[in-house]
Specification:
The chain has 391 residues and is of the alpha/beta class. The chain is 40% helix and 15% strand. The protein binds 4'-deoxy-4'-aminopyridoxal-5'-phosphate.
Length: 391
């Protein structure tokens, strides 16, 4: 007997074909992608295992090393979103019962702690005491007090729109025999990130924010110290996330295996184009552009009378900004206006910004002056509409 597909008539009556780039994705991610990336996605997949996909991986790995600013051989992409990348780092480098510190600045830091607890790690959660982000001093004090094997911090906390200073943190961690792991899901390809120079042992990013592709891969890099730890772990990580096996698929250490699971070759090839766009533009130029354009956005929003969740611009992220809505404006009506009138998708607040803010992402392919100015115009319109002015 066949099961019937129970979907309303409305589903079938929707206009086809559906193309997501009709929408402007200016929330906390995913962001829009270039035609080049979308075109690359639209090819037939390649047969696995095979040399064609391996060729993509060889080039891709070198490109990822560059954007992470690292010489780590253990640099690769795995198949899942950023959350899976975080889970992979925790399950491969720390054994149950071992102590880690998680710096919780917002929703995403809390999530790292929650993932770690599912692995029965001994998790110490700390929150910043002197502002929205941590001082290096307070992180050092926590390391001295708790003696963790690993410190996990969020580089760009997109729930609030903050940036954590990392320069110097690696040296502090290493002084106490602690590894430094960083959630760079939003920051890779948006703001300065120097894995080697800053002594980061583990960094995780993903495809769909400033890295200019669609969701589906996590980018990971591990220092030799992190790999050493992985080799000496006492427990086995989940099969799908077994990094020592995946390093072989990516030929990280000159030992090649042809298969661990079927990679989505379209996604690999397209995401590689996204990273290529950053490299072609120049890493420094990309970072500078994100800074300039996000400041342009902030100036414009201030002129509209809006206020930011993070008051001090020094702590604000040049990628995702949390903006307070005036009390007279509900997120629902503001958001509906932008979607229904212009197909503009922003994000609602989450964690600390939930209920009071909207979040706007100027990053990756969407980081253009034209888009910033367009958004300011439409936000102004939406505010007027929500406050009852005739348009
Ligand atoms: N960390 C940060 C800072 C994020 O912004 C996000 C996604 N918004 C994640 C982790 C989780 O990534 P994903 O949704 O790709 O699983």
């Amino acid at each position: 007997m066949h099961l019937k597909l129970d979907i309303s008539d409305e589903f079938y009556s929707k206009k086809r074909p559906y193309h997501p780039s009709d929408k402007l994705l200016v929330g906390a991610g995913p962001s829009n992608c270039s035609a080049r990336v979308l075109y690359t996605l639209s090819h037939e997949p390649v047969l696995l295992p095979g040399d064609e996909v391996f060729k993509i991986m060889v080039e891709f790995r070198e490109m990822l090393k560059f954007v992470f600013q690292t010489t780590n051989e253990a640099t690769l992409a795995i198949q899942n979103s950023g959350t899976g990348g975080i889970e992979a780092t925790l399950t491969n480098t720390v054994d149950p019962g071992e102590k880690i510190i998680v710096g919780v600045m917002g929703f995403w830091g809390k999530r790292v702690a929650d993932i770690a607890k599912t692995r029965q790690l001994d998790v110490v959660e700390i929150v910043p005491q002197f502002g929205p982000v941590f001082t290096l001093n307070e992180l050092e004090t926590a390391i001295i007090k708790h003696k963790p094997v690993l410190l996990y911090v969020t580089h760009g906390e997109s729930s609030m729109g903050t940036v954590q200073t990392l320069e110097g943190l690696g040296d502090i961690c290493h002084k106490y025999n602690c590894l430094l792991a960083v959630d760079a899901v939003v920051t890779l390809g948006a703001i300065p990130l120097y894995v080697d120079r800053w002594g980061i042992d583990i960094a995780v990013s993903s495809t769909q924010k400033a890295a200019r592709s669609i969701p589906g891969l996590a980018y990971l890099t591990f220092s030799p110290k992190a790999v050493e730890r992985m080799k000496n772990r006492k427990t086995v990580p989940p099969f799908y996330y077994n990094m020592l096996e995946l390093f072989k698929v990516w030929n990280c250490f000159g030992v090649r295996s042809i298969y661990h699971y079927t990679y989505n070759s379209n996604l690999l090839a397209a995401s590689k184009e996204g990273i290529a766009e950053i490299i072609e533009e120049g890493l420094l130029e990309t970072w500078q552009k994100h800074e300039e354009l996000n400041k342009r956005l902030w100036d414009g929003l201030e002129k509209l009378g809006l206020k930011f969740y993070i008051k001090n611009p020094e702590y604000r992220l040049h990628a995702v900004t949390s903006v307070e809505l005036p009390p007279s404006v509900s997120f629902e009506s503001f958001n509906n206006f932008l979607i229904e009138r212009y197909q503009i998708y922003i994000s609602f607040g989450i964690g600390p910004t939930s209920g009071t803010c909207f979040r706007i992402g100027i990053m990756g392919y969407n980081a253009t002056a034209k888009l910033v100015d367009y958004m300011l115009e439409k936000i102004n319109e939406a505010l007027k509409y929500c406050q009852g002015e005739k348009l």
